[in-house]
Amino acid sequence: MMTFPAITALCAGILGVLAVVLAGHVGAYRGKAKVSIGDGGNDELICRIRKQGNFTEYVPLALILLGLLEMSGSAGSMAISIMGGLLVVSRALHPLGMKLDGSQSMCRMFGMIGTLPVMLVCSVWLIYGYFNAVM
């Protein structure tokens, strides 16, 4: 039974706001650095672009996986809420931990440690659900 993925929608809304913040962070610095296209070799701009880029590389697929799992009805709302919450917190922490000098940080580490398991759990759960339904 497919239902509206309300928990995923909430997560998508929060992450959408974060995406706008990250884009604004890049755009504001582009103006300051007078670089309209590319990174101009500016290390600060490169770091800001990568913060936004990393977000856009992971969040869409993670939300699709989470939403499909929620719509499938095979995972309870508590499991979806936990994974969605972990995804939101992880994606908020990750750019905070990306440093200009490339040094390691706990925020960046927790950002990835939280994101990848959510994607993996949702993926495996969806694969299991498919084979469970077909067989």
Q: Can you describe this structure?
A:
The chain has helices at 6-33, 43-72, 77-97, 106-134. It is elongated, with a radius of gyration of 17 Å. Helices cover 80% and strands 0% of the residues. The model has no long low-confidence stretch (mean pLDDT 95). It has one domain (6-134): Four Helix Bundle (Hemerythrin (Met), subunit A), CATH 1.20.120.550. It has 135 residues and is mostly helical.
Number of strands: 0
Distance between the termini: 18 Å
| Count of discrete domains | 1
List low-pLDDT spans.
none
At the first level of CATH, what is the class? Answer: Mainly Alpha
Beta fraction of the residues? Answer: under 5%
DSSP helix count?
4
Q: What percentage of residues falls in helices of 4 or more residues?
A: over 70%
From the alpha carbons, calculate the radius of gyration and give it in angstroms.
17 Å
How would you characterize the largest beta sheet? none
CATH-level-2 architecture: Up-down Bundle
> Helix and strand string, N-terminal first?
HHHH
Which geometry do the CA atoms define? Answer: elongated
**Would you identify the CATH H-level superfamily?**
Membrane associated eicosanoid/glutathione metabolism-like domain
| Fold-level CATH name | Four Helix Bundle (Hemerythrin (Met), subunit A)
Averaged pLDDT = 95
- Global structural class: mainly alpha
Topology:
Elements: H1 6-33, H2 43-72, H3 77-97, H4 106-134
Helix pairs in contact: 1-2, 1-3, 2-3, 2-4, 3-4
